[in-house]
Amino acid sequence: MDNGNTSESMVKKYRPLAVAAGIGSILGSGIIVGLSATITVWQNGLGLTNSQVGIISGALTFAIAIGSLFAGQITKSFGLIKSFNWLNLIYAVGALICVFSQSYVVLLVGVIITGLASGADLPISLTVVSHDAPDDKTSASLVSSTQIFWQIGVFMSYVCAFIVSKMAGASGARIVFTILAIFALITWAWRTFSTQFKTFHEAGERRRLANEAASQQTEKVSIKTVFAGSNKGRFMSFFFSILIFYVCWNLLANTFGQFQTFTLVQAHASQSFATGAGIVLNFISLLATMAFASVAGGKYRNRFFLVGITVQFLAMLGLAMSSHSLWPIVITIGCYNIGNNIAGEAMYKVWTQEAFPVEVRASVQGFINGFSRVCCGLFALITPALVVPSAIRNTMFGFAAIVFISFVAGVIMMRLEKKHHVNDF
Fold first, then answer.
1. pLDDT tens per residue across span 362-399
2. CA atoms of 297 and 399, how far apart (whole Å)
3. Are 127 and 141 in contact (CB under 8 A)?
4. Range with the lowest mean pLDDT among 253-267, 290-304, 396-410?
5. Are 60 and 37 in contact (CB under 8 A)?
6. d(CA 21, CA 5)
7. pTM of the model
8. What element of type H or E holds 118?
9. Nearest-CA neighbor of 148 among 15, 246, 334, 258?
10. Distances (CA, A) of 174 to 8, 38, 41, 97, 188
11. Is residue 186 a contact partner of residue 92, using CB atoms and an 8 Å limit?
12. Which of 64, 93, 92, 80 lies closest to 132 in space, CA to CA?
């Protein structure tokens, strides 16, 4: 009872830090969905060609991937905390360039700057949370809770885009990006000037140094020492289990994120029904993410994962069997959204923060994030051909196979954590 109360009090104490990191997730999903939802508005307002629209959308995807890949290098060059504090200012600069853009080139530059900052911020923010958290259980709870903010960002971006959709020219899109810039500036100021966060950072660094001294560690921790040192087998097993799980999970999540409305319309839903269903399904995703966050640091986490991955598998089979009937498709997508958020990105974030030393977490997670986004970007080139009515049945059987692969990788990861005593459940 006392241990539970102590853990809850620690989570409550460090919650503001998780919120500050979580707003970075809002900004991350916000720029992706915000651009997607307003790209036609930008096209009409600035007179962009279809090829220019495609280049802008692709540039954002690859900018986020590059930012993620270089997250570790950024922390080495500028320091973990300084990077955490100042990346959102760079994001705000990029968003404001978009706000004031009057041409294709200026909008493209703004999108790239925003994407680079967003891609780097996510792994760095999670590393700061796990670095500052006083124990592993508190860290798991706080890290998983940041996924809630990602869903909030998606929801807010859709709502904002819907509200401003009737405005003339590019005005509506400029308002959406102004809101993102304001959020980024507030987050930058909060992270940078909060005395509470400064205390958390200093205490976290003291604990890290004490743990380093207690383990009689003389060699500086780096990517080389982790993956080529005496424990390379352990860390390589962690790395490939997490990488395979996340890439498989993200291929499906990205596909449904981009083409859910398209799939519903192909099943003869009206555009308004498909959009409304998307908002409801997003809300279901948010509730599922909150449910997982409540158990992320405890013994029921793995059970939730097994239930979630099973629901995803059955949902893919359900979509394969439902043919072109609208309501069965809506119901199975709803089930998928539940399973997807119980056994998905939040679990990946927790695993990555638990499995690797704090000195390399931003680099490892940044690489996995970036590699996964590149895979999703390439896969998106053929996705439209896979979700048309004539192909969707076979596609969903293929997706069920991908879910099964992610299940195997996830089970291996859970066994590895137990084998190496990463947690006690």
1. 899 999 999 998 898 788 778 777 877 778 789 889 99
2. 29
3. no
4. 253-267
5. no
6. 24
7. 0.83
8. helix 104-132
9. 15
10. 41, 9, 9, 10, 21
11. no
12. 80
Using DSSP, state whether 322 is helix, strand or coil: coil
pLDDT given at position 1: 43
In this structure, how many other beta carbons lie within 10 angstroms of the beta carbon of residue 411?
A: 16
Q: Are 116 and 60 in contact (CB under 8 A)?
A: no
CB 229 within 8 A of CB 218: no
Instruction: With beta carbons less than 8 A apart as the criterion, state whether 248 and 405 touch.
Output: yes
Helix or strand run (H / E) with residue 169: none
Nearest CA among 340, 219, 368, 322 for reference residue 284: 340
Which of residues 381 and 118 earns the better pLDDT score? Answer: 118
Alpha carbon distance 233, 252 (integer Å): 29
d(CA 122, CA 11): 20
Residue of 373, 376, 9, 34 whose CA lies nearest to 172: 34
User: What's the Cα-to-Cα distance from 41 to each of 103, 122, 164, 410, rounded to whole Å?
Assistant: 13, 28, 10, 41
Question: What's the confidence (pLDDT) of residue 217?
Answer: 60
Give me the helix-helix angle, 104-132 and 195-214, nearest 10°. 60
Closest CA to 352 of 294, 413, 310: 413
